[in-house]
Amino acid sequence: MSYSNWLPLTRYAASKVTAIPLKSRYSFPCAHFQTTAQRRYNTPTINIDHKIAGVEKVFDYYFKDKIICAESVQMAAPEALLSIKGHEYSIAHNKRLELVGDKIMDLVLSQRWYQVRNQNGQTSPVRTWNDIHKSLVSNEALAMRSFKLGLDAFVVPASGVHVTKNMMADAFEAMVGAVSLDAGEDAIEAVHDVLERTGFFNHPMLVR
């Protein structure tokens, strides 16, 4: 598939706080030292290396920027302290990435729909778009796909919060959004490949 006709997305530059090696955190004289995020939200630091690795394995996509992947699974608080490769970062909630993922999936799906031809070489009628869109990107459909792929194991919810269908629909969009921003100029192709590998295009109206 050629993606040369699509304008490349601007490469995302994740804003990072200064990383603090974990061993350095405990060298402060005060035994009860807490970072700003800990004081504000009273949340402990969570190591999520295994969660990032899990998302990468399911998507078969390996993030250059692990922090943006961490943001895609962070649903614990407006800001949470996450440990990545032995360093601590203050990571925002995944709501913004959810929006990015929602838009990029619509773009990739509409391109796939546009290019499909039936056995007679005919294009899909415009009226089929709404059916395909509802079948594949509704909250129910995204949640079912996420649970089937086991992505719920990699989400970071608030303490004591059960991961719901709506949360998983949002998380899937955020993870896809993270892929698109991490891939930069190759965003469209990277997202298409991830969706292909996770069975997103398994719909009778999208069979080539």
What does this structure look like?
The chain has 208 residues and is an alpha/beta fold. It has one domain (36-198): Ribonuclease iii, N-terminal Endonuclease Domain, Chain A, CATH 1.10.1520.10. It is built from nine helices and six strands; from the N terminus they run βααβααβββαααβαα. It has helices at residues 22-25, 36-41, 49-59, 66-73, 95-115, 128-137, 139-149, 165-183, 187-197; strands spanning 20-21, 46-47, 74-75, 79-84, 87-92, 156-157. The strands form two sheets. Strands 1-5-4-2 form a four-stranded mixed sheet. A two-stranded parallel sheet has the order 3-6. Strand 4 and strand 5 form a beta hairpin. Helix 4 runs antiparallel to helix 8 (165-183) and helix 5 runs antiparallel to helix 6. It is elongated. 35% of the residues are buried.
Low-confidence stretches: 1-35
Cα(first) to Cα(last) distance is 12 Å
In CATH's first tier, which class applies? Answer: Mainly Alpha
Physical arrangement of strands within the biggest beta sheet: 1-5-4-2
The proportion of strand residues reads: 5-15%
Q: Could you name the CATH homologous superfamily? A: Ribonuclease III domain
Key terms for this structure?
alpha/beta, Ribonuclease iii, N-terminal Endonuclease Domain, Chain A, two-stranded parallel sheet, 49% helix, 10% strand, disordered N terminus, RNase_III_dom, RNA-binding, ribonuclease III activity
Short description:
The protein is α/β, with parallel strands linked by helices and 208 residues long. The chain contains nine helices and six strands; from the N terminus they run βααβααβββαααβαα. The longest helix is centred in the middle third of the chain and has 21 residues, at 95-115.
